Amino acid sequence: MNNDQFYIxxxxxxxxxxxxxxxxxxxxxxxQDTIAFLEQSERKSDWILTQIWHSIVKAILGFFMTQTSxxx
Length: 72
Known about the structure:
By secondary structure, this protein is mainly α. The radius of gyration is 18 Å and the shape is elongated. The protein contains five helices and no strands. It has one domain (about 5-70).
């Protein structure tokens, strides 16, 4: 994925907001650590065996833990 595509996730639609808010709005984007995390996540999303393992473990741990706790 191109780094520019990550910025799409950080864009805000300012239509419908008062000009007093839009005039002070500052568009931010992902930092380098976030981009590295997103790139790594994208690569790992194609690992089928890892995804199967996570699904199995999530199903088992779901009996004992909340989703938030399972995700760490």
